[in-house]
Design goal:
Order of helices and strands of chain B: EEEHEEHEHHHHHEHEHEEHHHEE
Strand order of the largest sheet of chain A: 6-7-8-3-9-10-12-11
Shape of chain B: globular
Oligomer: heterodimer
Structural class of chain B: alpha/beta
Helix content of chain A: 25-40%
Helix content of chain B: 25-40%
Order of helices and strands of chain A: EEEHEEHEHHHEHEHEEHHHEE
């Protein structure tokens, strides 16, 4: 996030991902742009879990996919272990892919129904030629299955023969196959039943300790994110509006959007609910095609002033290690104005 | 006091290749007028099928094999299609999870709202139109006069769900059944919609049943809760009873397995082990026995009945009552 943390695994700087909306039959010229991610800067520290939260359409999944270079961003830079992914060709990115993996939300859609569990887990090993021969492949797949608590005798079965929790274990094993350092987990438990979610969350935490993994944990469930994350970034309409340590953001949220988001989540305790201050945000998220001027949150913000409609706030360190993009924050104007994310010098070519 | 709705020994079965799926398996429940009721359960617990059975909408090849559903003095399960149509929409309103699939995509909002008003209340067209605009206004749709002419696709998910709420309330029903009404929308919109539903049902003097998998929603919005597992109610009590002194091991397990927004991180979550049961091959005895850490010999052989373990607090467990106290620990 800042110069005090030079052991960052990933730097994202001024990242923009705009998708064209095309019109016309023959000449598909962009008529407008969907600004899914519109100027995001953040860093992920080695070994941590950064939770990325926001409502649908805020750009959290797009950001995750840009980081994995599944999309080519419109602008900005992504440095993974010092390598600038945005400047690399697809061929050059490929060796780095072994070190960054993904776990998807829907264990039904993300597993090929015509492959056995064993073939799914082993596929990355074959693609990256990480094993020699069938025996080694079989042994490694069995080891991975065991690691995620999946009985090796079930490796010959097909995805439809499993429950959603077991399927997600297959997805986790596949992500681990190449010994990655960094995993983007995009809503990994939101398709699972409540009683199964905790099993997968515990598994992800155990694997992180065992293999020193760094996670970008994308989710909309704020309770799960509080449990699993070290730091949390909140996105709204393509922007990171707040970023801080887990308990700082939950106990003392500074951005009005974060405050509204937290207040909206019902807590499974009727006594707490009865005494809780209610703060229901009015209106709906505007379209990312034509976002509001100034602060993108200002039309719904309860404390917006005239300046908010003119001036786009930047993410500033309004308290130690607590970043917020809100000009109404008492710490905003006095916070350092220089870019909080010094771009590390690009290393010598790998 | 006679309950507004009384379900007695309801069973709904679905024949499948694997065997008979007992989606609802001998369920009894009574709902009194003016309460807000929560029915909680995970996928496959039978909570949605119960709602469909009340409304006479169990999809083929499912079939109500036993039981009765008494509503305002009549057994809904014995009504014919024509009689049932007069109950649905008129006396019982419905709000489903996905408004895009419950609204007709080729008809305007106006047409869909006026159709109900004309059919059930015998309103004239112009009366119904005026009422439709009024209803949209009540559910907080901005500029209702022009939005009423729109087709559903023009509205956001939250707005569509507001239309569903308007439709459910339109004929002044006595009971509204909302099945996962906010699962498809974002959390800030969820708060808007649930607040609206709760306020309007009170204003319209209706009784609200919220079916949900989200314990937080239940804690915030309902008065009494029924917890379902494998087609049965396993625990039933006031919302305070269920959350403060849960009696059934499944309820206790659910509460321990979910992280809380307002609590500092616990070292490790305590998941419920195993998988939800296969409804075509339920275990002998208690359906929860293979995941239950309190299970004893008897649980493997005999199905525990729902019994009143403390006044007005029911639990279906041979080992109940569990120790009282927070989360039964």
């Amino acid at each position: 996030m800042d110069p005090r943390h030079d052991d960052d695994i990933l730097h994202v700087r001024d990242l923009k991902m705009h998708f064209p909306l095309t019109g016309g039959v023959f000449f598909q010229r962009p008529k407008a742009w969907v600004k899914a991610v519109d100027g995001v800067s953040l860093s992920i520290r080695r070994g941590e879990t950064l939770g990325l939260v926001g409502e649908s359409g805020c750009g959290k999944t797009t950001l995750g996919r840009c980081i994995l270079r599944l999309y080519r961003p419109t602008a900005g830079r992504i440095l993974f272990n010092g390598h600038d992914l945005t400047a690399m060709s697809s061929r050059e990115v490929r060796p780095l892919r072994r070190r960054m993996q993904v776990i998807f939300q829907d264990p039904y859609a993300s597993l090929n129904p015509r492959m056995t569990a064993g073939a799914i887990i082993g596929e990355p090993l074959l693609i990256h030629k990480a094993v020699n021969g069938k025996e080694e492949l079989r042994a490694r797949v069995a080891e991975l299955a065991d690691t995620v608590g999946f009985h090796p005798s079930m490796l010959d079965r097909f995805p439809h023969q499993f429950s959603s929790g077991q399927r997600q274990r297959i997805g986790v094993a596949r992500a681990l196959a190449l010994n990655p350092e960094f995993i983007v987990a995009d809503e990994p438990v939101s398709a699972l039943d409540v009683s199964i979610q905790a099993q997968i969350i515990n598994l992800l935490e155990e694997l992180q300790r065992r293999f020193s993994l760094t996670y970008l944990f994308i989710a909309h469930d704020l309770s799960v994110v509080r449990h699993i994350s070290d730091r949390v970034a909140v996105m709204y309409l393509g922007h990171v509006v707040e970023l801080a340590k887990r308990d700082d953001i939950y106990v003392n949220p500074r951005h009005p959007y974060t405050q509204a988001l937290l207040a909206a989540v019902p807590i499974p305790d009727p006594e707490v609910e009865a005494t809780r201050e209610r703060f229901v945000l009015a209106g709906e998220t505007p379209s990312p095609i034509n976002p509001p001027t100034g602060c993108v949150f200002h039309p719904r913000c309860p404390i917006a002033i005239e300046r908010c409609s003119r001036e786009a706030p930047v993410l500033k360190e309004v308290a130690p290690d607590h970043w917020a993009a809100c000009i109404r924050d008492p710490g905003y104007d006095s916070a350092p104005t220089e870019a909080p994310h010094p771009p590390p010098q690009p290393p010598a070519p790998a | 006091m006679t309950p507004l709705l009384e379900i007695r020994d309801l069973s709904v079965h679905f024949p499948t290749e694997e065997g008979v799926v007992k989606a609802v398996n001998g369920l009894s429940h009574a709902i009194h007028a003016g309460e807000t009721i929560g029915i909680v359960g995970e996928s496959g617990s039978g909570k949605s099928v119960t709602a469909l059975a009340i409304l006479g909408l169990v999809p083929y090849p499912g079939r109500v094999v036993s039981g009765s559903v008494l509503f305002q003095g009549a057994d809904l399960l014995t009504l014919n299609d024509r009689e049932m149509r007069r109950v649905r929409g008129r006396r019982i309103g419905m709000i489903f999870q996905e408004p895009m699939t419950s609204l007709n995509p080729v008809l305007t909002i106006e047409r869909q709202l006026t159709e109900t008003l004309q059919a059930h209340l015998g309103m004239r067209r112009d009366q119904a139109r005026a009422r439709a605009v009024d209803l949209l206004d009540r559910v907080g749709i901005p500029d209702p006069k022009s939005r009423v002419k729109d087709h559903p696709y023009r509205l956001s998910g939250g707005m569509r769900q507001r239309v569903m709420i308007a439709m459910a309330l339109s004929c002044g029903p006595d009971l509204i059944i909302a099945d996962e009404p906010t699962t498809a929308v974002d959390v800030t919109i969820q708060a808007q919609l649930l607040d609206l539903m709760k306020d309007l049902t009170r204003e319209f003097n209706a009784t609200l049943i919220i079916i949900s998998h989200d314990m937080g929603i239940v804690a915030r919005y309902v008065d009494r809760v029924a917890i379902m597992y494998a087609g049965k109610i396993v625990e039933r009590a006031s919302v305070t009873g269920v959350f403060k002194t849960p009696q059934h091991p499944y309820t206790i397990g659910l509460q321990q397995s979910i992280p809380r927004l307002d609590e500092e991180r616990k070292e490790k979550l305590q998941p419920i082990p195993g998988q939800p049961p296969n409804l075509a091959r339920l275990p002998h005895g208690c359906a929860f026995n293979d995941r239950c850490r309190y299970a004893v010999e008897r649980c493997l052989n005999e199905v525990p009945p729902l019994i009143e373990v403390v006044p007005d607090h029911w639990s279906a467990c041979w080992e109940a009552p569990m120790q009282a106290g927070p989360a039964g620990r």
